[in-house]
Q: What sequence folds into this?
């Protein structure tokens, strides 16, 4: 091929390349909220940005970012354990103490409700699992849609400082920090679940391996309230242990109790 043919080929390709180039340059403008999410998260603990990129859609990212801003002062203490920390917990005296408290509750429950048993998943809920839940949970999906619509309205409002990136970022931050999600998500933003440090326990009622009352919001009215398992579980928890606080009231989760280890009680 001669140099002239090459030049002709390149010239023929140029318009196409230009179109691709423009499309790339225009991409951030099509989703300004996404670039604000990136710039706000860059100001927070690095684990926030690493987690946000794994959340599907700017809407779910905004909803999680709201939680991270809200918990910013406690983020380091609260952040879910790494695989290394999970392994260190396994077989530790802390794990033994927790298991002992759970066993007490189970024994009390079985004594009061013959034929039924209490099941507890004693696995720490890893960050990966929390991310998966955030990407698939229905309450998160609904709340994410709402916060996206509200954030879009904010940045399109006449007074929004679109042309001053720092002010725009701060305005969105202030909005997110004060925003109350509707509906309230039934799970914590990835990294912030108390299950990620084994500071929360979900009890389930089983009978012969079958779930009688499980951790699902749709079953609260029937299985937990009408069938009475919420009250029966709570009675067993209170009778057997003083290390569990709960159950979670908002959003309602009659199976979910916070665990307060002896070492931190009275903090
Ligand atoms: Zn829970």
A:
């Amino acid at each position: 091929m001669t140099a002239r043919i090459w030049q002709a080929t390149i010239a023929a390709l140029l318009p196409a390349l230009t179109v691709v180039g423009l499309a790339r340059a225009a991409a951030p403008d099509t989703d300004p909220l996404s670039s604000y999410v990136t710039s706000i998260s860059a100001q927070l603990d690095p684990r926030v940005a690493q987690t946000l990129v794994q959340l599907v859609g700017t809407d779910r990212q905004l909803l999680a970012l709201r939680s991270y801003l809200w918990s910013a002062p406690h983020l380091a203490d609260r952040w879910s354990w790494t695989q290394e920390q999970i392994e260190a917990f396994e077989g530790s005296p802390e794990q033994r103490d927790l298991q002992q408290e759970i066993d007490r509750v189970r024994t009390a429950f079985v004594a009061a409700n013959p034929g039924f048993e209490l099941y507890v998943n004693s696995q720490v809920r890893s960050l990966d699992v929390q991310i998966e839940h955030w990407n698939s949970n229905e309450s998160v999906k609904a709340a994410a849609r709402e916060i996206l619509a509200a954030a879009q309205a904010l940045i399109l409002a006449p007074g929004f400082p679109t042309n001053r990136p720092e002010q725009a970022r701060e305005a969105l931050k202030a909005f997110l920090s004060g925003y109350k999600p509707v509906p309230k998500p039934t799970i914590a933003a990835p990294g912030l679940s108390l299950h990620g440090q084994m500071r929360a326990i979900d009890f389930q009622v089983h009978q012969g391996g079958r779930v009688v009352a499980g951790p699902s919001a749709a079953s609260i009215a029937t299985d937990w309230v009408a069938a009475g398992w919420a009250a029966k579980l709570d009675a067993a928890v209170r009778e057997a242990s003083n290390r569990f606080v709960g159950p979670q009231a908002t959003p309602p989760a009659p199976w979910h109790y916070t665990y307060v280890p002896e070492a931190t009680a009275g903090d």
Q: What stands out?
A: DSSP finds twelve helices and five strands in the chain.
